[in-house]
Amino acid sequence: xxxxxxxxxxxxxxxxxxxxxxxxxxxxxxxxxxxxxxxxxxxxxxxxxxxxxxxxxxxxxxxxxxxxxxxxxxxxxxxxxxxxxxxxxxxxxxxxxxxxxxxxxxxxxxxxxxxxxxxxxxxxxxxxxxxxxxxxxxxxxxxxxxxxxxxxxxxxxxxxxxxxxxxxxxxxxxxxxxxxxxxxxxxxxxxxxxxxxxxxxxxxxxxxxxxxxxxxxxxxxxxxxxxxxxxxxxxxxxxxxxxxxxxxxxxxxxxxxxxxxxxxxxxxxxxxxxxxxxxxxxxxxxxxxxxxxxxxxxxxxxxxxxxxxxxxxxxxxxxxxxxxxxxxxxxxxxxxxx
Length: 338
Ligand SMILES: O=C(O)CCC(=O)C(=O)O
Ligand SMILES: [Fe+2]
Hints:
alpha+beta; single chain; binds 2-oxoglutaric acid; binds fe (ii) ion; 8 helices; 3-stranded antiparallel beta sheet; 11 strands; 17% strand; Jelly Rolls
């Protein structure tokens, strides 16, 4: 798998063959970042004035637009300036959706638009706690927004007006990350998912999948040795370029850069061309049990059959050496929440 796949032309253009499009979607689902060096969201001339850190209120990392509430948060702007900023973000959200639909028509009916974000601040040198620090390698998982296995698909544009690149590191494939950190994933505290939901700390109940993804995110960011030594590829995304990634499997760190737009979409695993590439299915294969049965909206359980795996793919038991001393070794460390 290539960490980065460069797409020289727009996927919407007539010059792009269907076979090329399918190759690109396959690479995306396998965990590559699709990079469009010659494609970018067109800003209006008047929107150039938004490209200043002063556009943000200083309290939040990014300015965000919530399509459900039709509201911008995290900006210092007011009145007509705020409306114009909202207009830019709504246009970017539409542009990002059109791009994805042109690239992957099979996703069209299933894309759920989540937040849009505008990032006018320089990344490097920004103070942050290690868990919130996106300059450290991580896969994305949102603490307050459990997604029950749905994919996190994101479109980024570098809209820097001074030709400055945005620098990322892209780390190991998701399965390697999982194999490294799963043995350290602790059992969820019984009942915690329900309490967090009732206190409105989370927008939905965390499923076992959400618990594991959050732990992978935190364990990665908190592991200094991993941050220093794990394999990675450095990438410079040029000014006026676009990139797309499933950031729940692409291990990434954003090191440097200023002025970007980002649009998040969610997608059901079943809407993928190859659902087996999803982090949900990869984790279920490694662990040997369903991980969202509790969280499925219809309450149904899905079967997970690890039969037929190669020896290297045998289900892992989530145990740490400490737990082994205290528990029957046949008891998995991990058990359903509740
Ligand atoms: O701002 C960026 O370039 C990416 C930061 C990041 O890790 C994220 O948004 O998940
Ligand atoms: Fe991230």
